[in-house]
Amino acid sequence: MQTTQRHLPPSATPGPGGPAIANNRLLHGKPGAGKPTAPATIYLKVVAPALLTVILWTHSWIGIPGAIALAFAAALSLVALHRLLGRFALPGGLVREAGFGERIWLNRLVVPVPADVNANLTALYLAFWAGVLSAFFGGLSSSVLLTVTGLSVAYCAQAVSLYKLASLYRSMREKDPLYRFWTAAPANDDKRPSPSSRTA
Fold first, then answer.
1. 63: left (phi over 0), alpha (psi -120 to 50) or beta
2. Most exposed among 42, 47, 96, 167, judged by the fewest C-beta atoms under 10 Å?
3. What is the pTM assigned to this prediction?
4. What are phi and psi of 46, to 5 degrees?
């Protein structure tokens, strides 16, 4: 009895460049390395700097230790909320593409990205964290100037980085099989004909 052999396209085989190789490189190298950043995570990253800065300003009423403890509790709540909302599909668009781009950038040691894009994103992330730390220090020292300046720098850097990450995804999604499958719609097996209908 002979069995028929299905010929799969190269993109679906575990050979060089196939998705199995991509999964081995991107998923086995680091846990979660091939999973794109969810839109909920991006939204929480936008909310976090201002929220934590406002909480640190409460040191005037509850003291610096109390404000720091409250900010730490808020940060843990954001992490828990991220895990909860990450299970649901939220509206994406640019934010969704930015999440894909961020994962691609984090995978740059496995699948290289353009050097100029890497340099720009690194500078933007450094500027973002410099702004956030300045805002936090401004909150603890009751400095309006430091707070406003820090948040302005952080959000400007974050806004530019979102566009850069979305652009990176658009330019890199054809460079590795796994990136293409992130947005692939699963096939509906219910539409396949049943064995009885084939023999009828």
1. left
2. 47
3. 0.70
4. -75, -40
3-state helix, strand, coil in the chain (%, to 5): 70, 0, 30
The CA-based angle 78-161-94, given to 5 degrees, is: 80
Distance from C-alpha of 137 to C-alpha of 20, rounded to nearest angstrom: 47
**Cβ distance 133 to 196 under 8 Å?**
no
Separation CA 5–CA 25 (nearest Å): 28
pLDDT > 50? residue 30? no
Question: What distance in Å separates the CA atoms of residue 127 and residue 137, rounded to the nearest whole number?
Answer: 15
How far is Cα 197 from Cα 200, in angstroms, rounded to an integer? 5
Dig out the tokens for 198 from the structure.
């084939």
What are residue 30's phi and psi, to 5 degrees? -150, 130
Long-range pairs, 33-37, Cβ under 8 A, ≥24:
33/103, 33/106, 33/107, 33/110, 34/103, 34/107, 34/178, 35/103, 36/99, 36/100, 36/102, 36/103, 36/182, 37/98, 37/99, 37/100, 37/102, 37/103
Length of the chain: 200
Each residue's pLDDT tens digit, 61-87: 999 999 999 999 999 998 888 777 665
User: Cβ(150)–Cβ(138) under 8 Å?
Assistant: yes
Residue 85's Cα: distance from chain center in Å?
13
User: What is the reported pLDDT for 88?
Assistant: 56
196, amino acid identity: S
Q: Quick one: tokens of 82? A: 């991220």
